[in-house]
Amino acid sequence: MSDGVVFDSDTLSVVDFDARRWEANPGIPGARMKALASHEDGWIEVLLNWLPPDLGGGPHRHRHRSVRERGLVIEGELPMAEFVAGEAGPGVAVLFRAGFYMDRAPGCLHGLDPSRRSRSGFTILEWRDGPGTYLMEDHAADESIVEDAPREARALEPDPRPGVVIERDDLTLLDVFALPWADSKLEPGVRVQILTPGEVAIAYAPPDTQLEAAGSRRGYVLAGSVALAAGVTAGPGSFVQYRQGEPPLGVAGEVGARILRF
């Protein structure tokens, strides 16, 4: 196996993020990425994206015509501005940081906060259902609509609900480190955080506890390890993808496992 591929078959693929090489992201100047899964048409579907410290931009904002994008911040921070479609005024300032989950629907207006820069750089696991979301990549001219934006962003009003940063029809931002856990209805002993109902969740399994795919074909191990049915152990930073069927995901290792299922 090469470039971080731990296991690959007709039904299952396991990639070790840490062992995969970084490459330039052609859609974002200065950024680097690790591509994990590509669509049959060739565009990248799942990737780890790294942006360098002091990255700036704007003042501009953009939206996507048809593509939905989701992501979980792995480390670092990135100052963003989030806008309400149809409003000309300033957006709200949101510091994306480790543990932030984003679910951005088509039409959601957003951009970098032009008044601030990332001090540490920024790493995010992203997945999307179409190309053209990065402004310098192929198809961006057809998919992404760019417009001028105010130079200043206004303060974000805190949401009283634990873990909720922003929740509206076109955007969900959650802080998973503050989001409550609930018992899984399908897996004894497993606890879950629901990020997008029916589609995206984080599961925690104590040592030697069975984890199911639970309707998902992809997973990213955030902590601990999972002994997969194929006889392969997926450790922290492993990307797991089932290509066919939905077998049991595996058994949590000796320190348990925390895994993003999507």
CATH topology of the largest domain: Jelly Rolls
Question: What is the overall number of helices?
Answer: 1
Rg, alpha carbons: 19 Å
As a percent range, the share of strand residues is over 45%
CATH superfamily of the largest domain: Jelly Rolls
Structural class per helix/strand content?
Answer: mainly beta
- What's the shape? globular
Tell me the domain tally.
2
SSE string, helix = H, strand = E? EEEEEEEEEEEHEEEEEEEEEEE
Number of strands: 22
CATH class descriptor name of the largest domain? Mainly Beta
Helix content: under 10%
Q: Name the CATH architecture of the largest domain.
A: Sandwich
* Distance between the first and last residues' Cα: 25 Å
What's the rounded overall pLDDT mean? 92
Low-confidence stretches: none
Please outline the major beta sheet.
Answer: 10 strands, antiparallel
Word description of this protein:
The model has no long low-confidence stretch (mean pLDDT 92). The chain folds into two domains: 31-175, Jelly Rolls (Sandwich), CATH 2.60.120; 182-261, Jelly Rolls (Sandwich), CATH 2.60.120.10. Strand 15 (182-183) and strand 16 form a beta hairpin. It is globular and about 55 Å long. The strands form three sheets. Strands 1, 2, 15, 16, 17, 18, 19, 20, 21 and 22 form a ten-stranded antiparallel sheet that branches. Strands 3, 4, 5, 7, 8, 9, 10, 11, 13 and 14 form a ten-stranded antiparallel sheet that branches. The chain is mainly β. Helices cover 2% and strands 48% of the residues. The chain starts with a strand and ends with a strand.
